[in-house]
Amino acid sequence: MLTVDKVRKVFGATTVLDGVDLRIRPGEVVSVLGSSGSGKSTLIRCINGLERLDGGRITVDEFDVSKPRELAEARKRSGTVFQLFNLYPHMTAVENVMLAPVEVLKRPRREAEAQARAILASVGLSPRADAYPAQLSGGQRQRVGLARALAMEPRYLLLDEVTSALDPEMTAEVLAILGELARGGTTMLFVTHEIEFARRISDRIVFLDAGRLLVDLPTVEFFSPAGGLANPRIAQFLSKMHKD
To answer: What CATH class does 2-87+158-243 carry?
Structure first.
């Protein structure tokens, strides 16, 4: 289980996360909604240990991300895909995907390459496996990013606005892959502005507002008039998103 207990994160005079509690169980798909600046991306960065906590505790299968000796084990269990692709430009797609299994998991290169090619094939990129990032479209680069995270065989997939830098056609490509992963039982914490997609794939919806977790509800309840929509802040947010 991935647990977030009373997590607090401060940047200067601004409290970005304020006492956030969250539980992600294996097999769940949980989407995180909220306006820009609500703390969504910071939450992902705290879970993978890129930001130091100012309060509270985060554990990934009981490994505490705040403890240096446990952080490496926690990261082996969670894979992160960011909104920017962060691929190594001097490496081909397959080389980007196989790098961490070789360097971190110490897998033989031949085994890692075979696995990388299989994963790239699963996200529709087998013909582009030997292409460099500059030779790929934005949607293809983001799918390489997904493949790279999946190559570590994570128990938890953390997705931070992975479609925000893509045009509508490329967004559809990436969302199709995520939908397949969700239906296959991949555990996901999905920070997104793709409201309708979140409604389709999520078991639960979490809503952050000014760093506080406003609601954590089953998806059907979140979108019901007696559930999440009964909260004026959520109703306002969803109304604006639908207009946009």
So the answer is: alpha beta
